Structure prediction request, 383 residues.
Amino acid sequence: MIGRIAFFLLVGTIALGACALVFDWRVTLPPDLAAAIGWREGLSDEQLVDADVAWYVNDEKIRRKVDDAVGREDATDAMLWLDMARRLNIPVAGGLEAAAYALKAREDSLETQFSDYVSGFVTGSSDSLAGLAGAVTSDLTVYGDLRDIVGEGGKMLAGEDYSEFILGLSVVGLAATVGTVATGGGGVVVKAGISFVKFAKRAGHMTAAFAARLTRLAGDAVDLPAFKQTLRRLDLTDPTGSWKILTDYAATVRGARIFDVLGKLENIREAVGTTEALRLLKRMEKIEDVDDIYDVTKAAGKRTRGVLELTGKSSMRAIKYTANVLQILFEYVWALALWVGGLVAAILLRVTISAWRLGRWALRRIRRNRARHAAASLRLSTR
Prediction:
């Protein structure tokens, strides 16, 4: 009996919930209560991120992070946590803030940046942002891709160890340059993304797992065994002819998932800055991590790494889910109450009916016993 009642109540609750979603039936909470429980109805993604972060921080925690970054002379971390403090209206001592800006100014020294830029342009590797800028410039002018194709391709032909990662991405970059494939975000964006990940790999800012996955994606677009035969036909004394051979091969590069991934990586770099993007790259193990972090950067911008570190969440889905759990529960709490109340009512009804039946049985038994005693007494009196 109770099982049947529970089943029909469940069906009714589902139907009521569906109507609530369709017709937007909601509970309106008083503003003070809404603020107290973290009600987040109608917030933008950026506001949801701020509201979620607020659950995990306090003034002392942020100040410690700024102080630690200054102590380590890490200008990037210091500026990140200063920005988080400003966003959360957390005051930071003037001396500590000044020390953070002094670190930033020293890192941005023109003399240091120029030499690193030249080194990055020529070699494609460096330890600084200026070096990355040089590497990106060289790749955007085709020089970087050709440099890496000749260097790594030469090793491949000679039977030496070569970087399949660098070679595959360089060929993908060549295809993006000559416009032979649909690159999603545009050839320039994809090429900048290629330069960024090549630089990150050389500088040790990429996990082995993520590098392996990017290599496989490049392999989906580029047939390296066939490209090896193409390399054998190159004559470096004939630049025009060699360029024609390479561009003809580039026309065979297939459109693939890697172009979307590279475009998103470059968009992440633009949203958070190069240093932050390199540090976020170290958090990536799977290709899906790119999509997750990309979504967070659209809402959190330069604060993305701080948000991920403070909340422990790596995707906008996780942030939205936890941000809206209370909202969902309170908006449709009456449906839950109806379900629980219905079960309780069913149980009470069943108990009441059972008690009534038991009472009737006990009353009938008492009456029968009395009738027997009366009959027995009557027989005794007639003797």
